[in-house]
Amino acid sequence: MTSARRRVLAATAAATAAIALAACGSSGTTAAPAGSSGAPAVSGTVTVFAAASLKGSFTELGKKFEAAYPGTKVTFNFGGSSTLAQSIVGGAPADVFAAASPATMKTVTDAKAATGDPAVFVRNTLEIAVPKGNPKHIAGLKDLTGVKTALCAKEVPCGAAADKALDAAGVKLTPVTLEQDVKGALTKVELGEVDASLVYRTDVKADAAKIDGVEFPEAASAVNDYPIAALARAGNADGAAAFVGYIRSADARKLLAEAGFQTP
Amino acid sequence: MTPSARTRRAGSRVPPLALLLPALLGLAFLVLPLVGLLVRAPWSALPEQLASPEVWEALRLSLISATAATAVSMVLGVPLAWLLARTEMPGRRLIRALVTLPLVLPPVVGGVALLLVLGRNGIVGRWLDSAFGLTLPFTTAGVVVAEAFVAMPFLVISVEGALRAADPRYEEAAATLGASRLTAFRRVTLPLVAPGIGAGAVLAWARALGEFGATITFAGNFPGRTQTMPLAVYLAMESEPEAAIALSLVLLAVSITVLAALRGRWTGS
């Protein structure tokens, strides 16, 4: 991307964000401060805890946010949603939490650590990740019973979703490993240690140079909602509200859709 | 305080405050987290938490694989320690540095390295797979390999230390009486450094029991096959902190029991 084009994009981002924020402010659905409808008085560092599967798109959105709100800096902590939720409840200094499942967000809302109701901003579905060229000719979930497969552990969102999809397909599977997060499951395919794994569509898309993806119909019954919320103990409450507003803006939605997410 | 007063105090065996205070703080720092585990433990729900077959599967697997890793470490590590302590060879310092590298290497790096060498597409692993149909990742043998990788240096270091402390003249005497070098090693050196081997084995076993990073990277995580206690604890922490605390207690109890039982026997302290 040329720098001129980037500048145009940044300007567009700023404009859309401002409009989105103004819209939110007038309808009163977010915690955006009253003064933010004109020139937003947002500054300082915004610390965002986000699901590992959001890493690519959020890194880019963070840069755009910084461009839209000069004087702000976004720092990310990407990881397994469950781990992040536990550390937020444990008092980790975070302003925003974006989780890969409502269940992990519930850990945070149950502890009264979020402000307002979390909003679902994207959805993600599963795909079968296979090595380039699909050497084992995997066409659907049923084909996974005969090959080495890596799944996510059921304790983490991608594993819970995989369980649901396999149930829906009536497939009983014995994976060789239950990975602690979706990136772990993906890497094992990339290294050729397993023949297939169930990962998010967005992961397949982001890693398209090294792996192929196989869609399957049962994925529809295992759609993961991604909620986002500003946190109650946020050190930068204005920044948190602005970031949540920005992620829900049309501009951010477009970028997330390009990364393979479904936007509500 | 005058110097003479200080000497008197040392003489009366009352530890000086400047030593006692940090010592006690150090003790508290090491012990308090474990106390925290006991305080926060869900005692009433504990029997139920521990009744699940997964817990016992993970514990059984942990004990078996840690013991196997210790055995591997002894079979390969004792000769390696002997090589480092008793022979003159070029590049010995470098070899010693390499041997102790896993001590400071993040275990997960060790796991990555093992995966790249012994994995299905690894340099050695590819050959193992095609020649013997043997793949180590995602198997219990893989767990043992990962644990031995991080645990063996502990054994090598303590055996090498014991060998250096042992007087080589006994071996020389055995040699003058006609014993071969191997016989001298077996009949003289080994008994001489047995306490060192024992202490090293205990250290290696304890390290193997707690191994997490290399195991999950190289051997993956599957209940009954590769899910050891540390992995079970980590995954339980994702969804059920109570269960994680319960599992941690079991691991703590096992470690303390074994260390206490073996320390007295092997190291005489």
UniProtKB/TrEMBL annotation, chain A:
<dbReference type="InterPro" id="IPR006311">
    <property type="entry name" value="TAT_signal"/>
</dbReference>
<keyword id="KW-0732">Signal</keyword>
<comment type="similarity">
    <text>Belongs to the bacterial solute-binding protein ModA family.</text>
</comment>
<dbReference type="Pfam" id="PF13531">
    <property type="entry name" value="SBP_bac_11"/>
</dbReference>
<protein>
    <submittedName>
        <fullName>Molybdate ABC transporter substrate-binding protein</fullName>
    </submittedName>
</protein>
<dbReference type="InterPro" id="IPR050682">
    <property type="entry name" value="ModA/WtpA"/>
</dbReference>
<feature type="signal peptide">
    <location>
        <begin position="1"/>
        <end position="22"/>
    </location>
</feature>
<dbReference type="InterPro" id="IPR005950">
    <property type="entry name" value="ModA"/>
</dbReference>
<keyword id="KW-0479">Metal-binding</keyword>
